[in-house]
Amino acid sequence: MKDKQCLMVVSYITDAVVAPRNLTVVAIGTTRAKLIWIYFGPISRILRFELTYEWLAAPSGKYSVTCGIDVYKRQVTLRGLIPFQSYQVFMVSIDLDGTTSNTTNHVEFTTRGDDRAYVPVKHTMQVEEVIIISIIVLIWIVTVVVFWRRWDSIRILQPMEPRFKHNPKNLDTIKIVKRAQDSIIYKTYSRKLSLTMVAREKRRLQRMHTAPVLPTIHMEDVTTVM
């Protein structure tokens, strides 16, 4: 029985109508005032918001005005106020069944006595705004730190451009040496060059020590008769 009552209480609390929060006056003039608020709750279950403002120093007793506001609005401007007078404002939510929520925080303000300016009121940050901004900053910091730590692995995964248009054959068997004289290519090139020069020199010497073979000319004795 107690568990059933607890479930009923929890269900009632969950289905309860939520009132707007952080009702704040952000600008005050001689005959007008601008208010803003925030709302955390299901909009689909709310029929409208109701805002009530009271003239605190009304000469004829209590004077209040109640107006309905669309559920998607988060600000309203009160007009037709009396200069240099104090007012008190609060809001409630009305759901589809006509149920009224608790009232918001009561806000008092005083209109200006002259018509020279529409004075903005210094807006102080609310607890919800501080929490939301802190969460956003924290997420941003964590993202930067994770990216910075994984940058090395991300950079390694980048494709490396080959040094050659076509990789040389037997690339795995090539041995890196400190001196050019120790390379196989250098040694092979030097030996081939030496053999070629020796053969060329031998042919040149053979041509120098070989006498040319000339044809033999036979001379006959010719007697002239006088």
Features:
226 residues; alpha+beta; Immunoglobulin-like; four-stranded antiparallel β-sheet; 30% helix; transmembrane helix
Secondary-structure blueprint:
Layout lengths: L1 H13 L6 E8 L3 E7 L7 E10 L7 E7 L5 E5 L6 E10 L11 E4 L8 E2 L6 H23 L1 H6 L27 H26 L17
Antiparallel strand pairs: 1-2, 1-8, 2-5, 3-4, 3-6, 6-7
Organism: Patella caerulea (Rayed Mediterranean limpet)
Keywords: Membrane, Transmembrane, Transmembrane helix
Protein name: Fibronectin type-III domain-containing protein
Overview of the structural elements:
This protein has 226 residues and is α+β, with helices and mostly antiparallel strands. Among the domains are: 13-124, Immunoglobulin-like (Sandwich), CATH 2.60.40.10; 125-158. Helices cover 30% and strands 23% of the residues. It has 4 helices and 8 strands; from the N terminus they run H-E-E-E-E-E-E-E-E-H-H-H. The protein has helices spanning 2-14, 127-149, 151-156, 184-209; strands spanning 21-28, 32-38, 46-55, 63-69, 75-79, 86-95, 107-110, 119-120. The strands form 2 sheets. It has a 4-stranded antiparallel β-sheet with strand order 5-2-1-8, with no helix packed on it. A 4-stranded antiparallel β-sheet has the order 4-3-6-7, with no helix packed on it. A hairpin with a 7-residue loop joins strand 3 (46-55) and strand 4 (63-69). The longest helix has 26 residues, at 184-209. It is rod-shaped, with a radius of gyration of 52 Å. It starts with a helix and ends in a 17-residue tail after the last helix. The model is unreliable at 1-14 (pLDDT under 50). Keywords: Membrane, Transmembrane, Transmembrane helix. Residues 19-114 form the Fibronectin type-III domain. This is Fibronectin type-III domain-containing protein. InterPro entries: FN3_dom, FN3_sf, FNDC5_C, Ig-like_fold. The chain crosses the membrane at residues 130-148.
